[in-house]
Amino acid sequence: MKKILRVLAKGIKKHWRIVVVAVLIVAAVSGYLVWRSQQDKKLDDQRKAVITYSADKPDEEKPDKNTYKWYGYSEDPKYITLPSIGAEGFIQKVGVDQRKEVAVPSNIHIGGWFVDTVRPGQKGLSIIDGHVSGYDSDGVFKNLIKAKVNDTFTVEFGDGSKKDFRIKSVKSVKTAVAAAVLFSQEPGITNQLSLITCGGKFDRATNQFEERVIAVAEAI
Questions:
Q1: Which of 129, 138, 187, 201 is the most exposed place for a label (fewest CB within 10 A)?
Q2: Residue ranges in 133-187 assigned as alpha helix (H)
Q3: How many alpha carbons lie under 13 Å from residue 131 in its C-beta half-sphere?
Q4: pTM
Q5: What is the mean pLDDT of residues 146-157?
Q6: Are 184 and 202 in contact (CB under 8 A)?
Q7: What are the C-alpha distances in Å from 125 to residues 39, 76, 120, 204, 217?
Q8: What are phi and psi of 201, to 5 degrees?
Q9: DSSP state of 160
Q10: Contact at 8 Å (CB) between 106 and 58?
Q11: 195 has which bridge partners?
């Protein structure tokens, strides 16, 4: 009888060990799934993030192309390169800011794709804005005014694909009429991408540049 009881005790002990191990595994897996879900949500939130506040003093530290953490979806514009004017930079999403205008990027070396327009290269009008300068450094679109008709440039997307564009016109307009010009799609251009930055003299009374430089391009 004692032998039988010992065998039963060993069996029960072994059984409980298996149960405990199983419970620990389930707890670990559940914990990982919860953590993974939180991380996925955080990443999704980062990908959806849109700049809606135009800072008077944006960041002037130039992002390192090899270490900068860009967040976006595979179809979102990620990087712009304009070799003819020596300009390049990452692209972030911008929306409507506190002044009810297109928000400017949070860093002077980064372009901003206005999310209320189509993605660059799609049918319709797309807009990317960028700073002409900061307080101490030149901005990504410092030399946009020097761009010429037929200059080409490239936009890279989150999935690594690229789209080329050809500039059709470059103009400097008064700030008061800039929005009307910016949001006009040129006749004959099906897939339009307009680049905009500040230009002209800086009015310290209004804390604004007097003009806007707008380069209109078409996908090729």
A1: 187
A2: 175-182
A3: 25
A4: 0.79
A5: 99
A6: no
A7: 34, 15, 8, 32, 10
A8: -85, 155
A9: S
A10: yes
A11: 128, 215
